[in-house]
Write a structure and sequence with these properties.
Number of helices of chain A: 19
Organism (chains A, B): Zostera marina (Eelgrass)
Largest interface: A-B, 76 and 76 residues
Oligomer: homodimer
GO cellular component, one term (chains A, B): membrane
Order of helices and strands of chain A: EEHEEHEEHEEHEHHHHHHHHHHHHHHH
Keywords (chains A, B): Membrane, Transmembrane, Transmembrane helix
Strand content of chain A: 5-15%
GO molecular function, one term (chains A, B): chloride channel activity
Main location (chains A, B): membrane
Chain lengths: 645, 645
């Protein structure tokens, strides 16, 4: 039970160690390290299950809720209480804390960090070193040394990874991944319980985005199908204004939805950032800084900003000076070549080159980010997203811009758009699932082959019987640009952002594109769900509570699309290329400015947080203050008195 | 002493009652109401001083700090404690609270609300009604009725108003209003202690704005004086870009400065809004709303938004349909009239008409705002500012736009700009001080004349000897659009905003204008200081901690100025009126877009709050949570247990 009754967690963490080999059983003195690890794990109150795989042994761990709770208290975990304030967890006062939507006391993310705290907290409590052995290897376990860290550094523990929970996984598969009839509806709360905030936020965003896409899709279809007679000339501008307003509204409402989700999951966003920065703050300040100290802090802050600006400048410079000429050359060559052979050759060379270029860019970005002082992992990840997105932006759109500007021919542009959209979206959906499957199959094949060699049974087809071993062989959900700061969500969001940019920036050229996108996204929801539930190891949950940097990228794309659509309209209505500022052109320019105004003015009208969420939060803080006001005051004044004495 | 030693406040509140007339002394039974009021005031622990003026009697009130503190505790005032959290004030734990920069326990705003609480809190504690009389008038003071409210409604108390503190006022006059040599420097902390947050924020803003204006002023001077040879054609665009960037930077840095000021004064901005909304929240929510209740709340919220949008639409509609044609007609008539007599007549009619129009607009706006649900007085005031500013914006600039577009002649535009600037700024500075003085003199003359008639001494020149009577006769610091929601700061900020709009929107037409503005603003600082210290009653302090709606208005003016300057540049470089999108024009359009991008992108680079302020605040919250964590948890769980039982 995944903490359902509050009794104990499921077997949610797996440790992979080599299989015990019988022939060197009693040769050495000391303890067999895997055996003693299991003993130690049981001693700290965990439930352990050992499973013999084909080439490795798997140790599955579960924890009674009390063990978990004591670990959480030791970790000084802060949790939402029923008065809405985040307080440090105490096992004895567990009733004060808000339970998860599925009834368990800890969220998946909290459970995992407790597991980690418990298993890495196993140290040698004796005064003397203990001798450990495995497969002829011997090592000493020093006092106060963490056993698991030692075993990891000795190479005995191959991996510690979160396990899928079979009951919940099957339930989700049935209700979510295979439930195509629900279109855009998804069981978000269950996804949150199983995968954590960030992934649930992604799916919630994807669902809402797809739902909202129905509006421009139907408008686009109408524009495509019907002839508006004398009003035809105004159809595209009206569509353009509609689409931009739609996008602005959508993102404002998404922010509201996000804050509602967080309120429902009992996550205090404001205090989340507090938590992250608390430790840094502690070192730096014990009182309000004055004079010399303050100016030092300010200098430090500005130095940080300048560093960030410099890094961004390097990235922009790199993109403009290296990537832009390359992309333009490719687009130009591709356009002006007639031979199909050379064209395919070009595409092959190009695809190879951008693979390397992207990886190189990501590496440089990560290097740059390391020199920045970001206030936590999520902040660094956001910084990376901005930098790498610039690269992808150029890669995806420069060819389209080239087309649009060189040919100034709507029909060619439409063709290219359809090609790109179908190629990028359909292919990606296929690759997303097939690449992990191929990886998994290859690994499985290798494992089985090794086994066969060992046993000498060349012709017997071995089978993987244990579920945990299958999971171990599955690839992990990681980003294509490197696993350091981002996980697989990077690729999923990138896909979404590039799609959004494509449909928005060329909305006027091809209104029907929105229909394709709706179809694609409905598929995307289920395909991504299937991917996460079946194709990958269970991902490590992240603490981020919003879509972070991507929100700003989407906003940027809206502004870009205002500009590009205006250009498109100018091209459409001024086909002779006179570029005169005639009334029509002037009207377009005015429209552009009005739209930009709407874009930036609208946020004043719709608050990002629904009133009831805000009022609730605010009231909670006030209640908490009232509850402990006197107590606090007394301790402050006594602190002061002591200082004076 | 204005709370300096913490011993007692100065005489900071005055009550005006009619002078006792001797001849009806013992005619009636019961108590003389002024005498008994003074007795009651002394009974609740206030210090009272009675001063006989020429036609009225003035009762000055001071309070020992303990009386003040007990009143604050009864008011449930929240104050910043030394751990940085706002907690309810308790007299016994007063050491826990942060002291003001001048060493006193309460700020001026807090003192005034305590005074009000104390004096209006005097009720008839006996079971029976008491009979009161004054000048033959009799009334009954019912049990549990507030004496002062009764006396106000009987018309006996003419006014209760905050008094100037002579020591501090003289000190400020010397160090601030007459201290011209300091240019833009001002003793902001002392201003804060004496006038409260909002006025101190205004002067801090004015000082910083003037200081920053030196940059564009010197650039403008250079543009005006030097000939850049072949580079001359690029001078204006460069100046334009510089000015816009300057403005964007300035406002970002102002936000930082504002948060630093608040940190120094011990004001928790985040909790300020909490405080305001707490009472509303209490009625509405006792738990997280669900289902029907939630949807009702949401409906209510959206209804509020729609109401606001409707009101804004009414105002915009009114401005465009009523004011715009009127202003254009005036501008057109004025332009096309040659006779000076008719011109002067036009100006006179115009000035009269806009007076009425503005007042009418303000009344309509206030009426509209009353139907809105704003979350407190400052929020309503902001809403009023937006609505009324639209009116003034049209009034001030439409003539200039008309000039700029009709003549497309830089020289005429410059002349008009100088005229307007000098007329509006110099005249306003003069009026600001002379109008209150004339009002004061008239009132004084009237009071003395009445006196003389009474005494029958027709030829003796009576003198006002008491300071408090002089203050009573001074006008109060109120807004020209009505005193309901705004005070005199509205006019001061309006002047600043209109000036800012004028210099920014026509920056390219006349770079020298920045020099005039610097000179004007240096004068403005001292003139405004003099006005507040000498010409008016001491203003009632307001709780607002930022410049509020004006910040958004300034930002809007920046965006507007990007557009107008681009138009100006087009006019300058395309004098034949071909309006062709030639390379030059295209370059300007590109520049415009880049600038808009900078405008909206820059806020991502510079955070609005310095890192040390934020870290400090964050750490304070964390510390407070740690301090009372266990205590809180226990009370929450016991609450829950009780509920279950």
């Amino acid at each position: 039970m995944i903490g359902n009754g509050g009794e104990s967690t499921g077997f949610e963490v797996g440790i992979v160690v080599p299989k015990k080999k019988e022939w060197n059983f009693s040769r050495v003195r000391g303890f067999h390290c895997v055996d003693s690890m299991v003993m130690e794990l049981e001693k700290v109150g965990l439930m352990v299950e050992r499973i013999q795989g084909i080439s490795d042994e798997f140790i599955k761990i579960a924890a009674p809720v009390e063990t978990m709770g004591r670990a959480a208290a030791k970790l000084q975990l802060k949790k939402m209480t029923s008065i809405g304030m985040d307080l440090q967890f105490e096992w004895d006062e567990r009733e004060a804390f808000v339970r998860q939507p599925d009834g368990s006391l800890f969220s998946w993310c909290e459970r995992l960090s407790c597991f980690h705290h418990i298993i890495y907290g196993i140290v040698n409590k004796k005064r003397s070193k203990a001798t450990m052995w495995l497969d002829g290897k011997e090592f000493l376990w020093y006092p106060n040394e963490s056993l698991l860290k030692r075993m990891e550094s000795e190479g005995i523990i191959k991996l510690i990874f979160p396990l899928h929970d079979e009951t919940n996984r099957k339930h989700l598969l049935r209700n979510w991944a295979f439930n195509w009839l629900d279109f855009t509806w998804q069981p978000i709360d269950e996804i949150y319980s199983y995968f954590g905030t960030k992934i649930a936020t992604y799916f919630s965003f994807l669902g809402m985005y797809t739902r909202w896409l129905f509006f421009p899709a139907s408008f686009g279809l109408a524009v495509h199908l019907f002839d508006f007679g004398s009003g035809q000339i105004f159809v595209l501008p009206v569509f353009f204004v509609f689409v931009i307003s739609w996008a602005v509204f959508f993102f404002q409402f998404w922010k509201r939805k996000n804050s509602v989700l967080l309120a429902r999951w009992g996550i205090n966003d404001t205090f989340d950032s507090v938590r992250e920065k608390k430790d840094r703050g502690k070192e730096m300040f014990n009182k309000i800084p004055v004079g010399e100290e303050k100016s030092m802090l300010q200098r430090e802050e500005w130095f940080g900003h300048l560093l960030k600006i410099r890094n961004d400048a390097i990235v922009v410079f790199g993109i403009i000076c290296l990537q832009l000429p390359f992309e333009l050359t490719y687009a130009h060559l591709y356009e002006n070549t007639d031979s199909y052979v050379i064209k395919y050759g070009l595409v092959a060379v190009y695809l190879l080159a951008i693979q390397y270029y992207t990886r190189f860019g990501a590496k440089v970005s990560i290097m740059l980010i390391k020199s920045e002082k970001n206030a936590g992992r999520e902040s660094s990840a956001d910084s990376l997203v901005y930098k790498v997105f610039g690269l992808y932006f150029m890669q995806t759109y420069i060819g389209l811009f080239y087309h649009a500007l060189q040919h100034r021919n709507i029909v060619t542009l439409r063709e290219v758009l359809i090609q790109r959209l179908i190629v990028s979206q359909v292919l990606e959906n296929l690759l997303e699932n097939s690449v992990p499957y191929i990886k998994y199959s290859y690994k499985k094949y290798k494992a089985l082959r090794n086994k066969r060699y060992e046993k000498g049974q060349i012709f017997k087809l071995a089978q993987l019987n244990s579920r945990v071993e299958k999971e171990f062989l599955k690839p992990s959900y990681s980003a294509s640009i490197g696993a350091e700061l981002e996980d697989g969500l990077f690729d999923d969001f990138l896909e979404l952002a590039l799609q959004f940019g494509m449909i928005m920036m060329f909305a006027c050229a091809f209104p029907l594109i929105f229909c394709f996108t709706v179809l694609n996204n409905i598929t995307e929801i289920r395909v991504d769900a299937f991917k996460l539930l079946v194709m990958f190891k269970r991902p490590i949950p992240r603490t981020a509570t919003t879509i972070g940097a991507w929100l700003n990228i989407f906003q940027f794309l809206i502004v870009m699309s205002i500009c590009t659509n205006c250009t498109l309209l100018v091209c459409l209505y001024d086909q002779e290329g006179k570029w005169k500022l005639e009334p029509g052109l002037a009207a377009i320019l005015i429209m552009e400015h009005v739209l930009l105004l709407i874009k930036f003015g609208f946020s004043h009208f719709v608050p990002e947080e629904p009133a009831w969420v805000k009022a609730n939060r605010v009231q909670n803080v006030a209640k908490a203050q009232d509850l402990c006001s006197k107590q606090l005051l007394r301790s402050i004044s006594s602190m002061k008195r002591r200082r004076i004495e």
